[in-house]
Amino acid sequence: MGNEAIGLGAIRAGVRVALGYPGTPSSEVLETIAGERGGGVYVEWSVNEKSALEVGAGAAMAGKRVLVTMKQVGLNVASDPLMSLNYLGVKGGMVVMAADDPGPISSQTEQDTRHFGQYAKLAVFDPSSPEEAYLMIADAFECSEAIGRPVLFRPTTRVCHSYASVEPLDALAPPEPAGFGREGGRWVIFPRLARANHVEIERGLLDLADRFSSYPGNVMRGAGRRGIASGGVSWLYVLEACGETGDECRMLKISTVPFPARLGAEFLQGLDEVLVIEELDPVIERELILLAGQRGISVKIMGKLSGHMPYAGENTPDGVRAAIENFLRPRCAGAIPSKGEAPPSAAAPALPVRPPVLCAGCPHRGAFFAVKEAARGRKAIFSGDIGCYTLGNALPLDMLDTCLCMGAGITMAQGLSLAEPDALNFAFIGDSTFFHTGIPGIINAVFNGHDIIVAVLDNSTTAMTGGQTHPGVGRTLMGRPAPKMSIYDVLSSIGVNDLRRVSAFDLAASKAAVTRAIEARGVRAVIFEGPCAALSKKEGRSGCMVDEHLCFGCSACVKKLGCPALSFSGKFARIDRDSCTGCGLCKSLCSTRAIIGGDER
């Protein structure tokens, strides 16, 4: 996997400290380092991306090679320290990996980290394949040390999660960490120092742009009067469509920010038209347009800005092939050669629609249903958050009205309570997100006397991104035992006095706890506890089944819960024994006791 290649590449490059917060598509990088690190490498899941970046900054100031991982929206959380750290600089190589998610496949946004690099005045490395990512991560470390500043590493989902054969190379020999030195106040960001360093940053970017024109990751090949410029995984799609040599056109691959202007100008010379194919934003396209204007090069540049490439979503091999065919058609009076093979989409059947749902046996289903039942008949607003439980918005539960970003459900509920004081304002948050950014919002609610009900969905893992640990689990990424922080105790210590803890699978107790919270005022919380169905063991628990002698086909279990193990066939409800975990929620709804088996809770 591309993420495994990046992790192994970081180990080869001599990384000594690796930190991050799990977020698809980046999570497997740290897990790979944790499993393959050997001695001398420290790795952790930090409580959030800001904390990870700041811990990493301290280690890098002392000369350690540091990798900090996150996804593109996590970069927003880390942006405050990262912006300032570029002004202070580092001694050891520091690479901040922000995995972008074109599509988006599992994210709220289609942010392009190359823009952040330009905005923050940071160098960006943009690999196109797992093989290149394995090598390029070492280049990123070396660049960071050479310029004395952090750099960004921007793989996209198809690079992170595609597979390739990668040949491991001998480990590199990075410089020995020099240790922390005060260096006359170098590490204290006063305004005068910031202004002086800003000048040095700008000079450094100009120098980097020139050096990147000779960087092996930036490639020009082929000949002709037409050109295609690309980068990232789109470059592989271009090669698939045009062939490795690019006989019919000149091709340019860009893997870095700042833009290698000298190479770009050489590419544009003598061309009539250029098609730019990239994800997500027209970064390369704008740079080429600017360069053509500055150098007085007469060339037509097409891409997203001209409407020749889609502005949103990820590129696909078929889409890139079609765009190149349309681009070259006036030149070759037809389509580019396809080696006698029809495009894969010509015969491929349509994929079935599979909307995401909460897993069978997910404790969040019980929590949502209990709140829904307790609030029935009342005006209520349900603010959500980022995690598996975002799926609570789907029918038949239909239990999320808002979802913005991590931690925002609790604070948005406070704003909604001001605008809708006659409504019940619920805020749903998971256990990992609670530790990530939920606590400050609850402190704000207690301090300012807001009227909200917080529902903490505690399944003892960071479920959506693959089951990583967090402060409430009691184990670190390195496998060491750690203090298991109690969400109940944290809430109590910050002033939430109306506080209850229930099993998410005990529908009666859960509904009663929510009912009592509804009757109270101020900040109150209900913690719904239950293990993640994807990680908990099914051994020793029997699945549920339907007694057809007792079932009369009311279908309440199917229509109210939306559990994927439940269906309705003929006259009776059906339970898929392979997917049923025996959680017993459906038993609580069955008025005829036709559902038997499962756990006794």
Kindly describe this structure.
The protein has 601 residues and is an alpha/beta fold. It has helices spanning 2-12, 28-36, 49-61, 72-88, 113-120, 130-147, 157-160, 191-212, 233-242, 261-268, 283-295, 317-332, 363-374, 408-419, 431-448, 487-493, 507-519, 556-561, 585-589, and strands spanning 17-20, 42-45, 66-71, 94-99, 124-125, 151-153, 219-222, 226-230, 250-253, 256-257, 273-277, 300-302, 380-383, 424-430, 452-458, 498-503, 523-529, 544-546, 566-569, 572-575, 595-597. Strands 2-1-3-4-6-5-10 form a seven-stranded mixed sheet, with helices on both faces. Helix 3 (49-61) runs parallel beside helix 4 (72-88). It is globular and about 80 Å long.
Main attributes of the structure:
single chain, 601 residues, alpha/beta, Rossmann fold, 7-stranded mixed beta sheet, 5-stranded mixed beta sheet, 19 helices, 21 strands, 37% helix
User: Main sheet?
Assistant: 7 strands, mixed
Mean of the pLDDT scores? Answer: 91
Give the percentage of residues in beta strands: 15-25%
The CATH homologous superfamily of the largest domain corresponds to Thiamin diphosphate (ThDP)-binding fold, Pyr/PP domains
Number of beta strands: 21
CATH topology heading of the largest domain = Rossmann fold
Can you tell me the residue ranges where pLDDT is under 50 for at least 5 consecutive residues?
331-344
- What's the gyration radius in Å? 27 Å
Strand arrangement, largest sheet? 2-1-3-4-6-5-10
Structural class: alpha/beta
**What is the CATH architecture descriptor of the largest domain?**
3-Layer(aba) Sandwich
- The geometry reads as globular
Taking the alpha carbons of the first and last residues, their distance comes to 41 Å
Provide the number of structural domains. Answer: 4
CATH class of the largest domain: Alpha Beta
Individual helix count = 19
**What is the helix fraction of residues, given as a range?**
25-40%
